[in-house]
Amino acid sequence: MNDPTPLRRADLIASGHTPTELRNALRTGRLRRIAPGIYLRRHETDGLDDVDRHRLRVQALAPALDADAVFSHVSAAVLHGFDLWNVDLSRVHVTRGRTSGGRRTPHLHVHVGGYGAD
Length: 118
Prior knowledge:
Number of strands: 7
Largest sheet: 4 strands, mixed
Radius of gyration: 16 Å
Strand order of the largest sheet: 4-5-7-6
Helix content: 25-40%
Order of helices and strands: EHHEEHHEHEEE
Strand content: 15-25%
């Protein structure tokens, strides 16, 4: 099986799709949202488990993250291929090298703390 190709809303709009077409594709299931503004074609989501979907969200969100953000916690475990048991994979976890500014959204958990370049 080929790796699924995440589709970005901005790219779909730029290529001529309308917001109404995208809403209809989501409503009918032709597209499935994996993160805000990031979709997969329905046939590409068949057979994906929660870990696969999380990995795709991590990869799709990576270009939008600030330069000081690194994937951490459960997201780092997914990327490293660790076995997981009974963990919440609904949010991508990143850590930023700051002393404050952590936040949680339905799709992203930003942790703050120090970390070295290594």
